[in-house]
Structures are given as structure tokens and as C-alpha cells.
Amino acid sequence: MRVAVAYKDTLVGRKVMMAVTGIVLFCFVVGHMLGNLQVFLGPAALDSYAVFLREFLHGGGLWLARTVLLASVGLHIWAATSLTLESWAARPIGYRMQRWRESTYASRTMVWSGPILASFVIYHILHFTTGSVHPDFLPGAVYHNVVSGFRVVPVSVFYIAAMLALGLHMYHGIWSMLQTLGLSHPRWNRLRFAFSTGVTLAVVLGNISIPVAVLAGIVR
Ligand code: HEM
């Protein structure tokens, strides 16, 4: 137990924690996007999928998933914050000239794409789960809530912008996670790049297609 507690406090321990919780969040985001795409199959498909999620394991499945998700988000944010603060403390005076040799644009944006995503998720739950910020929310009518929600142009624009932040965060997150897990080698880097880019593009474009289809009148 003591060994486990000490390990989580090491640099590598926290990086592994980021990678493992990142995998859980990654699986959720991919699964959620595939579930959401059922909006293209019509109200019956999306609404019965939502009923299935709610009734899975007599209602226990959803709460189990919510608990794992919440714990992963909490640990992910904790490890990210402590690693960032530690790296800032190691270099209290900024460089006179910033030279971005080792970092990519996506890696430098992690510090703000993370908080934007956390704020998006809070708004998103108030919008589609509790309906508190949705003017036309009907409990259980998921298809109706999605379509009427995205008919509001600023809301759709906000979702699309949040998906771009998700893309930057996911791309760098997957890339770093594969590195932490030992897949950093010139032989693997091509595959690593193809996987990080391919999955990120699929999730971002899949999610963005929903508000765009509503605004274009394809889904109504
Ligand atoms: C355009 C993209 C998205 C659409 C259309 C969408 C749609 C929905 C809908 C309809 C619900 C409520 C489901 C129900 O009550 O049965 C929901 C819940 C949720 N979504 Fe999304 N979502 C999108 C993107 C995302 C993203 C990118 C994330 C995470 C980064 C996310 C995280 C969540 C979470 C955490 C919940 C609450 C699950 C629960 O505890 O019930 N969603 N989403």
C-alpha cells in the first residue's frame, strides 16, 4: 500500500496515472460518439439506446460507468495540475525567447484545452442530461433534446468550438499516452502518428457532424 502511494507521487507514477485515466476517458469519448451517431437513424434508435443505457444492469450499469468516469476525470485533472505546477516551479523565470523545439502546437495547448473541456462537460451535462440550461428539454426524449438544442445557432457554434479543443487535447493526449506506455521509437512513430490523428479526426468529425446536420436540416 505504502509502495503504491509513493509510486503515485513520482513523476513516472503520475504520468502513468494520466495515461491510464486517459485510456478510460478515450474509450468513453469514442463510445459516446458512436452512440450519438444513432441520431442519424431517427428518434426510435437514439431514444431506445438511451433507455438501454439507463436500464443496463437494472440501472446499476449507468451509475457504475458514472463512478469510474468521475474518478478518472478527478485523477486525470489532479495528475495534470500537479505535473504542470511542478514543471513551472522548476523554471520560475521564463525563457527570454521561447524556442519550441521539443513541443508541438497541440502539446502547448494542453494547459488551456483541458480547462475548456472541463467547462464544456459541465455545460453539456446541464444541457442534455439535467436540461437546466435547455429551454425546450423533455426528460427521456433524447432525440428531441438533441435536435431542438442544436437548432440554437450559438449553442451549435459553441459545441463545434469545444470539439476543436477536444481534437487538440485528444491528439496530444493519445500521442503522449502511447509514449508513456513505451511506444516511442522511430519504428513505431509513424503508426503512433497515424493512430493519434485517425482516431482524433473520427471523433471530432463524428461529433461535429451532428450539430451541422441539425443546422442544415438533414436531421430534424
Ligand atoms: C456533438 C457531440 C455530443 C453530443 C450530441 C452529445 C450528446 C449527449 C446526450 C444526448 C447526453 C444525455 C444522454 C441521456 O440523458 O441519455 C449526453 C451526456 C453526456 N455526455 Fe455527451 N454529447 C456530445 C459530446 C460529448 C463529449 C465530447 C463529451 C466528453 C468530453 C461528452 C460527455 C458527456 C457526459 C459526461 C454525459 C453525461 C452522462 C451521464 O452521466 O448520464 N459528450 N451527451
Structural commentary:
It is a single chain. The chain is mainly α and 220 residues long. It has a single domain (2-93, 100-215), classed as 3 helical TM bundles of succinate and fumarate reductases. It is built from 9 helices and no strands. The chain has helices at residues 2-9, 11-36, 43-55, 60-89, 105-108, 110-129, 142-150, 153-180, 186-215. Helix 2 (11-36) crosses helix 4 (60-89), helix 2 crosses helix 8 (153-180) and helix 8 (153-180) runs antiparallel to helix 9 (186-215). The mean pLDDT is 89. Protoporphyrin IX containing FE is lined by residues 29, 32, 36, 50, 53, 66, 117, 121, 124-125, 128-129, 142, 146, 159, 166, 207, 210-211.
- Counting structural domains, the number is 1
Uncertain stretches of 5 or more adjacent residues: none
Q: Could you say which overall geometry the principal axes of the C-alpha atoms support?
A: globular
Bound molecules: protoporphyrin IX containing FE
H/E series: HHHHHHHHH
Oligomer type? single chain
| Helix share bin | over 70%
Mean pLDDT: 89
C-alpha-based Rg, rounded: 19 Å
